[in-house]
């Protein structure tokens, strides 16, 4: 389950998304994955910038990631969790592993729990729903997390996202 605190975040997630995409965006929906180790937040957004749909995956960490090729988006201050290092999830191995498990049908998206004062006060439905189509069994294929989305899906193993008004593949397996 993804724990959502009643917190102040600076910069906001919208500001981070606008930094990543270089301008104003409209958030159409989001979803999260649970890191099995419970250390890294993995959150993905479907956004529109102009006429183009984008899929932006962010990871939130409590310390810098020391992995070659990892792209730091920025840092944020979370009023409950403290300083977070925010990475482009397509370059974070934890996010990659979550998408691989999801494509194999071994991991679903996270349940969103709302927490206040150290206790659960409710849940929230995700605004994007995921379904693995033609689940893959091979680990030898490369997970490709799609950034620019075409409205629709393609044949073959894919993770398909649906939101109000749209549907698209957000991850696929490449040979």
Note the main attributes of this structure.
175 residues, 4-stranded antiparallel sheet, 14 strands
Q: Tell me the number of helical segments per DSSP (H or I, 4 or more residues long).
A: 2
Helix content: 10-25%
Q: Largest beta sheet, briefly? A: 7 strands, antiparallel
- Globally, the shape reads globular
SS-derived structural category = mainly beta
**Runs with pLDDT <50, length 5+?**
1-5
Q: How large is the share of residues in beta strands?
A: over 45%
H/E series: EEHEEEEEHEEEEEEE
Termini separation (Å)?
Answer: 31 Å
Structural Rg: 16 Å
Explain the layout of strands and helices:
Elements: E1 2-5, E2 9-10, H1 13-21, E3 26-33, E4 41-49, E5 52-61, E6 72-78, E7 82-88, H2 93-103, E8 112-116, E9 119-124, E10 129-133, E11 142-145, E12 148-149, E13 158-163, E14 166-174
Parallel strand pairs: 1-8
Antiparallel strand pairs: 2-6, 3-4, 4-5, 5-7, 5-12, 6-7, 8-9, 10-13, 11-14, 13-14
Please tell me about this protein's structure.
This protein is mainly beta. It has one domain. It contains 2 helices and 14 strands. Strands 2, 3, 4, 5, 6, 7 and 12 form a 7-stranded antiparallel sheet that branches. A 4-stranded antiparallel sheet has the order 10-13-14-11, with helices on one face. It has a 3-stranded mixed sheet with strand order 1-8-9, with no helix packed on it. Strand 4 and strand 5 form a beta hairpin. The protein starts with a strand and ends with a strand. The N terminus is likely disordered.
């Amino acid at each position: 389950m993804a724990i959502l605190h009643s917190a102040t975040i600076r910069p906001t997630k919208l500001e981070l998304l606008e930094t990543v995409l270089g301008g104003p965006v409209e958030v159409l929906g989001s979803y999260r994955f649970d890191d099995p180790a419970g250390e890294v937040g993995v959150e993905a957004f479907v956004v529109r910038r102009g006429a183009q749909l984008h899929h932006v995956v962010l990871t939130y960490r409590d310390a810098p990631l020391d992995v070659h090729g990892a792209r730091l988006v920025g840092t944020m201050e979370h009023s409950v969790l403290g300083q977070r290092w925010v990475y482009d999830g397509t370059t974070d191995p934890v996010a990659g592993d979550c998408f691989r498990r999801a494509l194999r049908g071994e991991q679903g998206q996270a349940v969103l729990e709302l927490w206040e004062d150290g206790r659960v006060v409710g849940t929230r439905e995700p605004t994007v729903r995921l379904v693995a189509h033609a689940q893959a069994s091979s680990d030898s294929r490369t997970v490709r997390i799609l950034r620019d989305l075409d409205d629709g899906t393609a044949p073959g193993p894919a993770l398909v996202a649906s939101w109000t008004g749209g549907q698209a593949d957000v991850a696929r397996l490449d040979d």
